[in-house]
Here is the input.
Amino acid sequence: MANTHFIQWNCRGIRANYEELELLVAKYNPVALCLQELQVSDTYTSNNKLYNLISKLPHIPTGHRPHGGAGILIRKDLPHSVIPLNTSFQAVACRISIPQPITVCSIYLPPTSSWTETDLLNLVSQLPPPVLLLGDFNAHNSLWGCSSTDGKGQEIADFLLSSSMCLLNNKQSTYIHPATGTSSSIDLALVHPSLFLDFSWKVHDDLCGSDHFPIFISQSNSQPIPETQRWKLEKADWVTFAALSSTELVCDDIMLNSNPIEIFTEVLLSIAERTIPKTSKEPRIARKPWFNDECKTAISERKNALRKFKLNPNLNTLSNLRVHRAKARRCIRLNKRNSWKSYISRINSQTPMKKVWKMVRRISGKPSTTANTHLNVSGVNIEQPHDIANSIASTISHNSSTDHYTERFRRYKAHQERRPVDFSSDNSEPYNVPFSFQELHNALKKAHDSASGPDNIHYQMLKHLPESALSILLKIFNKIWLTGEFPTSWSKAIVIPIPKPGKDPSDPGNYRPISLTSCVCKTLERIINERLVWFLEKNKLITEYQSGFRKQRSSTDQLVRFESFIREGFVRREHVVSIFFDLEKAYDTTWKHGILQDLHKCGLRGRLPVFISNFLALRNFRVRVGSCLSDLHNQEAGVPQGCILSVTLFILKINSIVKCLPSNIKCSLFVDDFLICYRSRNMNSIERLLQLCLNNIQNWADRNGFQFSKTKTVCMHFCQQRTLHTDPQFTLDGAAIPIVNEFKFLGLIFDKTLKFIPHIKYLKDRCMKSMNLLKVVAHTDWGADGATLLKLYRSHVRSKLDYGCIVYGSARSSYLQALDRVQNGALRLCLGAFRTSPIPSLQVEANELPLILRREKLTLQYITKLKSTPDNPAYTCVFAPKYTLLFEAKPFVIPTLGVRVKDLLSDTGIRFECIEKSSLSPVPPWLLKIPTFIYALHDIGTKSEVPPDLFKLKLNELLADFDSFQRIYTDGSKFGAAVAAAAMTGPTLLVNRLPNSSSILSAEARGILLALSIIESSAHDEFLILTDSFSCLQSIENRKLDHPLILEIVVTVHQLIASGKRIIFIWLPSHTGLAGNVAVDAAAKAALNLAESQTPVPFSDFYPLINTHIASHWQRLWNANTNNKLYSIEPRVNISKPYQLPRRDELIIHRLRIGHTHLTHGFLLKREDPPECIGCQTPLTVEHILLNCIEFQLIRVKYYTCTNLSELFNNVPPRAIVDFIKEIGLYRKL
Here is the structure.
C-alpha cells in the first residue's frame, strides 16, 4: 500500500460498524476517512482518541430513526481546519496538511434527493483547490462501471466536463444490493486535475459489515509525516547505562574542554542511544487488544463467502454471505465486549496504583493539547505545518518584544536600561558559595519527570547516573557558577503551544507557550532557586499578601481572607467593592531588566544575580507543532514558562504592586491573580479611594511593563442591602471597568450576596462529569472492585468537593444538599448498592464521611496548620476575628470563618498553645554541616531474621571503633494518648513528657534534642547518639526541614559541629536486649506518668486528635440510626473491610449487609406491595433469606449456622455467604 491513505466508505451506520471502522484505522492509519450514511443524531460524538469527527447530518424529526449524513474522521495529529459550506447537500469539508494542504469533501446524495449540475458546481466553488470529492452519489453511469446510465449519472458526467474535475474510479463495483445481490458503482472519487496522477483508487476486498466496499485513495509518491521520537524509559537498561557512564564520563576529558557541558551532554546521549530504546518515527497505530484469532477467522470466512458470491452470484451464495457477515459482526462485538470486561476486571485493590492510573487514563482518554489546526492571520489561511509553527512563534516573539509594550513604558524602559545593574561583589555572601553534592542530590530528588528539552536529556538519565558521573556534573555546575559563563545551548527552548480553553484555535495569539528547556539546566536552576527563595523569605522581601508557590501558604489563605472581609461588611451593612485584575501575557512580558533591578534592590550581589542575568539574556526558541519545528525566534522579554526560576522571578517582579496601596485597602495576590477591595457605607468614598488606587496601579504598570486586560479586569459589588443603590464606576487607563454579578477567583465562584449558589452548581456539574469514569468501570458484573472505585472517587470527585469547601461550606445547608447527592450517587456506584439503600448505610459501608463532617475535618486541619504560621495574613481572620458580638447578635447573617469555628475549636481539645511555629532555618540550608550516620545494624537484616545475640555482637564490634566517644541513648514512648521522650548517658538522664496525642516521631526527635542538650553542656568533644528510630534518622539525614523538630535538630547539630564537636548517629534495633536501649526505653515509659507539658510539637501531631473528634461525631450520628439494618451488623463507624472478591460477589455482600436488594426492596421503585416468602408466609427480607427461611435450611447448614446477622457477617467468610446465595438460586435476583 502507498504511504498516504484516504478511505471512502458508506458505512451504513457508524454505530453499527464502529468496530470494523476501528480495524480499518488500526491497519491502515489513514489521513482521513470520508464516511457516508452515519445514521446518528446530532448529539453523537466520536470517542476515538486519534481522530476528530466532523459531520453534516439531515434534520431528523423527533421520534424518527436517524438516517443519512456525511462525515470525515481526521487524524488529530495533522493540522486541519473545517471549511464552512453553504449548500443543501449532506456534505462536509476540511482542509488537511499532509504536509501540503489538500481539501477533502465527503458527500452523501440519497437516492430520493433531487439536484442538478449547478448545485455540484456551487459546492466545488466553495472548496479551495486541490480537492478530493469523495462520496456516495447514488448515480449510475457506464462511465464508472454501471450497467446503465440514469439522469443523475448524466448530471455528474456533465459536471465532470464543465468543472475540469477528474474521475478516479476504474469501473470496479463498489456496492452490492443486500436484497438482490446485484452490483453497481455508485461511490465516486472526483479529484482536482493536479492530483489525478498522484492518487490511485482501489476497492477493498471486504465489505466490512456494510453493503458498500471501503475504497482506498492512496498517494503513491508521498512520505509519511514522522512522529517525534521519545525515550522508552520504562524499557531502559539502567544497569548498563550506569556502567557505561562510569567508564565513558571521564572527568579529565570533560573538564579540560572549553565547553564541558556540551561534551557531557554528547557522551550522555551516546550512552542513552545504546541503552534506552526510542519510539518509532512511524505514525502511531492504535492496537486493538480484542482482535484475536476468532475475529480473524470470522472475517476470513466472510471474505470467502464474498468471493464465492462474486464467482457465482445467486440466492444461495448471497444468503451465505449474509450469514457470515452477521456472524463476523457478532463475533467482533462479543470479543470486544469480553476484552473490555477483562480489562476493567483487572482493576482491583491488588493492582499497583501507578498501573491503575495508567489504565484510567486510557479509559478516560486524553484530548489533544497541541496546535493541530490551521491558522488565520489577517484573513490569510496558514496551512503548512512549518508555516503554522512559524506563525505561532512570531506571535510569541512579538508578545515578548518591546513592540508589545506601551509607548509610555518604552520611554521609561529606554531610560532605565541606560544604566546597567552592577552586581559586582567579592562573592563572600553565603548564597554565592560553590554547590555541594547534597544540593545536587536534593535537586534531582525533587525533580518530577517532565519532557526533555532541546538537548534530549531526560531527568531519569540524570537520576540513574552513578556517583562518579554526578561528581563530574557537579564540577561542571561549579565551573559555570564560578566563571559566570552561561552555556549558549541552555538559552534555547522548544515551545509547545497549548490552546487556551474556549478560545479560537485559528488565532495564533490564543496559545499558551510552554517551554521545554534542558533538564540539566533546570537541575542547576532548582539548586539556585532554593538559595534565592531562602534569601527572599529569610529577609521578608516577598510581601505577606503573596501566597503563590510559597511554603506554608496556599490559595485557601486568600479565599478565607476575602470571604471574611465580605462577611464583615455584610454584618455592618456596608458596601463591599472588589476589583479583580487580569494581566495580559504576564509571563511573556515580564521586564527582564526590571527583574535585575529588583534583585539589586533586594541586596543580592555576585554570582547568583549574575547567573540570573545570563539566564534571562539572549533567550531564543523554536515552536514545535507535531514533529515540525519553527525557525529560531528571539524572546526579548519575559520569563520562559516551564523553567524553575521563572515563577520566583515573576513573583519578585510583581511584588511591588502592593506598595501602591494605602493601608486601608485590602489586597490579595496569588502569583498573578490580584484583587483589591474596600468597604464602606458610603459608596462615594469607595469610588474615590479605589479610583486613586487604580491610578496608582496603572502608574505602577507603566513603570514595570505590565498591561491589564480592559475586558477581563472586572469589578464586583457585594451587598445584601435591599434598598436601591447604584453600582460603582471605575476606569483603568481610560477604559471603564465592567461590573459583573459573579466571578471565579482562585477556583471559587463568588456571587454578589455570597450565597455560593453559582459555585455549587458549577461544582456539581464538574463532579457529575468526573463520575462518568466511575460509571464506565463500575459495572455490577465485571467492574473494578469497591476499594479501587473508592480510590477513584476520592481522587476524581471528592478532591473537587474538597477544594475551597472551608469557604463555600458557609453556604446554607439547603444549597449544599446538591453536593450530598453527588456523593451519594458515587458511593452507590462504588459499592454497587441498590437504589433504595439508606444514605447513612452507604457512608458507613464505604467508610466515607458525610460531606458536612468532611468539611468540618478539613476546616480543623487547615486551622491547626494555620496556627503554626502567625505571620500568615489569614491568621487573624481565624484566631482574632472581628465583630464577634455583632455576628452573635445577628444570627441571620452568616459569620466569618473565625466566628463559625469558635465552638468547634473548643470541642476538639486541641492545645493550640503547644503547636510549634513554622520557621526557616536560621542557617542557609546549603551550609548546614552534616553529621555521620551509621546503619550497620540495619543492613544485617530484620529482627525476625537476626538473633538478638548477633545484634549485640555487631554493636560491640562497632562501638569498639569509637571507644573515646561518649554514648548517649535516646528513645520515645507512646501509650494511649500519653507521649514521652528520654535521653541517657551514664548517670545522666533527661526526660520530657510531651503534650497528649503527639506523634512517636516527635517523641523520638525530642529525645534526640535532649541528647543534644547534654552535648551542649558537656566538656567532651566526641559523641555517639544511639536511637532506634530509623524514620527520625532518615528525616535528619535528608533534611526534612518542614518538620520543626527536625529543623531544630539539624540546626543544633550544625552549631555543635561548628563549635568543634564530633557527632555520629547510630541506629539500633528496638527490643532486642541491647543494654543502653533497654534502659532508655524504660526511662521513656516511666516518663509517661509525668504531668503533661507544653512542649511545642508540629501541627500535624494533632491531626489524629481531629480524626478522633470527627469519628466520634460521626458515631453519634450513626447511633441515631438504630433501626437501620446495617447498624445491627456494624454498630461502629470508621471501619474498612476489603473483601477481595470478584465485583459481582462483593456487590452481593454489600447489598446483603445494607439490607436492601432488588428482590426485597424493588417494590419501592415499582410502587407495589412488599414481597412475602411464599413458604413461610412472612415478609421477604435479607434476614429471613439468610437465617430463617425453612426452605433453605438444609442448604444453609452446609455453609454456616448463625442466629443473627451480626454473627453471620462478622464471623462467616464472605465467600461462604455468596456460595449459599448461589446455591439457593438468588445470585442474579439480588
Residues 86 and 123 are 8 Å apart (CA to CA). The longest strand covers residues 966-975. The mean pLDDT is 90. DSSP finds 44 helices and 38 strands in the chain.
